[in-house]
Design a protein that fits this description.
Helices cover 31% and strands 26% of the residues. It has 543 residues and is of the alpha/beta class. Helix 4 packs across helix 5 and helix 8 (206-221) packs across helix 9. The termini are far apart.
């Protein structure tokens, strides 16, 4: 059965079964399953009339809003490929991703259209479809938001290649069936940090996505999830594989309502949980801490919450204990990566162990190995986590060298090297130990140290850079850059280099501070010893 499933198959079934039930509730506006399908099919018809075909890449460059789901479902329906990216990426970043993915269509917001306009002549873009966060809300809500300056707006230059999202929803619905092979045809290309300084595209087929979505729906949530009755709040950005996967698993694939939040504003989240009786919640460690430290927390009734998951990073024990003491329910862990999809989950029928990242999903095979020999380590010992699945694509998009670094063949199976070090206990549960020195977890984002270093080294006065994560209770790790300047550099300080980074990197990748040194530690063959710098910073913290 799995070999024939597509990412939207179960959604269509839920539309037939629960046509009038809310699928998405966004800023108070309810979109039923029948409405969401109709809007997505109308948008699909517009894309087809524009010339978007099976296999074409369509970039989604917007924040959480109902248009995100409409676009996702429409693109999947016509057999095209979504390329979701962060709406705060700069023109420097999206130019590379547009060219690398080959995207000819982009859906953007009016607030980031300026970046699209800046790169359009340097890319293969043929059309831009522009929307605003409140485009599909009732007229009176849109006017109130604009009147009280609550809705960010941007300037859009209209021409023959720029279209309004709202206008395209007037098209006749696209009801044709496109023949797709769930294993061979791509569903998405997601981008993650690159070890050579360029983001890596991760292609995913329909089968890879439905495999873990089914695992979460059937084996993790199981009977705890009430089909057609449950409520899930979607706070995390949908361009992230964790948030999109859970929205399908707990929401659209089970006839349930998704409360979609455009931004993670704590009081709005708490008010929404109280108002709609939310039972399922996914957050990151920083968000859980912000909720616990909110001085208005007592005003909200959060008794409906039953199943709270934490992703993006390992939850600090202190937050884990405070949450259980305050609400009487645990926080479960979810763990994965862009390359491997969802990998492990805490099981609802047992209390989560502190530091645990859960049990592997049925469709994922995990082994813990010595990173040098790739031989399995004994149970209970620390090693690098490797993951494989018979359903996933095991290569990067147009990156054979990166593929060779990240994937290894062991006994006729190809495993992805997660770069995280874990221990596996006798029950098969995995506990997090530490991550690769190249990966920094800042506000639950995975930031590639190499990518930030490459941007710094592009500055004409910089000859060397090392970027590390410095532990921080509130954001996980702060990004610190250590820089070596050319001997003849004059008048270059941290402020200039930080502006250089802000112009080229999304805000969450920009270093918090910069330190200047005369040299960086390197191995005998000239390789940067980033781990030495990281360990040095941690020793400073302990002093």
């Amino acid at each position: 059965m799995l070999d024939r499933e597509l990412t939207f198959t179960r959604f269509d079934a839920m539309c037939e079964k629960y046509p009038d039930k809310p699928a998405v509730i966004y800023l108070g506006k309810r979109f039923s399953y029948s409405q969401l399908r109709d809007l997505s099919e109308r948008f699909a018809g517009s894309l087809v009339d524009m010339g978007v075909k099976k296999g074409d890449r369509v970039m989604i460059y917007i924040s959480n809003c109902v248009q995100w789901f409409i676009t996702f479902l429409a693109v999947q329906k016509i057999g095209a490929v979504i390329v979701p990216v962060s709406p705060i990426y700069t023109s420097f970043e999206i130019e590379y991703m547009i060219n690398d993915s080959g995207a000819k269509t982009i859906i953007c917001q009016d607030t980031n259209f300026c970046y699209v306009k800046e790169v359009v002549d340097r890319t293969g873009l043929e059309r831009a479809i522009v929307t605003n966060l409140v485009d599909l809300l009732p007229f009176w809500k849109r006017m109130l938001g604009l009147l009280f300056d609550k809705v960010p707006r941007g300037r859009v230059d209209r021409n023959a290649r720029v279209f309004s999202f709202r206008s395209l929803l007037k098209h006749r619905p696209f009801n044709a069936r496109v023949e797709l092979d769930p294993r061979e045809d791509l569903a998405y290309i997601l981008y993650t940090g690159g070890t050579t300084g360029f983001p890596k595209g991760v292609p995913g087929n329909h089968l890879g996505m439905t495999s873990y979505v089914n695992d979460v729906t059937e084996d993790v949530a199981g009977d705890h999830l009430k089909e057609g009755e449950d409520v899930y709040i979607a706070v995390n950005p949908l361009f992230h594989i964790m948030a999109l996967g859970l929205s399908m698993s707990l929401g659209l694939n089970k006839g349930n309502a998704i409360l979609l939040m455009p931004v993670p504003q704590v009081d709005a989240i708490l008010e929404t949980i109280q108002r709609y009786g939310v039972r399922w919640f996914l957050g990151v460690p920083a968000l859980y801490r912000m909720i616990l430290e909110n001085d208005r927390l007592e005003r909200y009734d959060l008794s409906s919450l039953r199943y709270c998951y934490c992703g993006g990073d390992v939850l600090p024990l202190e937050v884990f204990n405070r949450w259980e003491a305050r609400f009487g329910i645990p926080i479960y862990q979810v763990y994965g990566s862009t390359e491997a999809g969802h990998v492990t989950y805490s099981r609802i029928n047992r209390k989560p162990k502190p530091g645990s990242i859960g049990m592997p999903l049925k469709s994922r095979e995990c082994i813990v190995v010595d990173p040098e020999t790739l031989y399995p380590v004994p149970r209970g010992e620390s090693g690098e986590l490797l993951v494989t699945s018979p359903y996933t694509i095991k290569q990067y998009w147009n990156k054979p060298e990166e593929t060779e670094r990240a994937y290894v063949r062991i006994h006729e199976k190809i495993y992805y090297r997660m770069g995280d070090f874990v221990r596996q206990d006798e029950d098969g549960e995995l506990a997090y130990v530490e991550r690769s020195a190249d990966i920094i977890k800042h506000k639950a984002y995975r930031v590639s140290a190499s990518e930030v270093e490459a941007v710094l080294q592009d500055h004409p006065t910089v000859i060397g850079a090392c970027v590390v994560g410095v532990p921080d209770q509130k954001v996980g790790e702060r990004i610190k850059a250590i820089v070596v300047l050319k001997e003849d550099a004059r008048g270059v300080g941290g402020a200039e280099l930080l502006k250089w980074c802000r112009d080229r990197l999304a805000s969450y990748k920009v270093p918090s501070y910069i330190e200047f040194r005369d040299m960086l530690p390197k191995s005998k063959v000239g390789k940067l010893l980033r781990r030495e710098i990281r360990d040095e910073e941690r020793r400073r913290m302990d002093e």
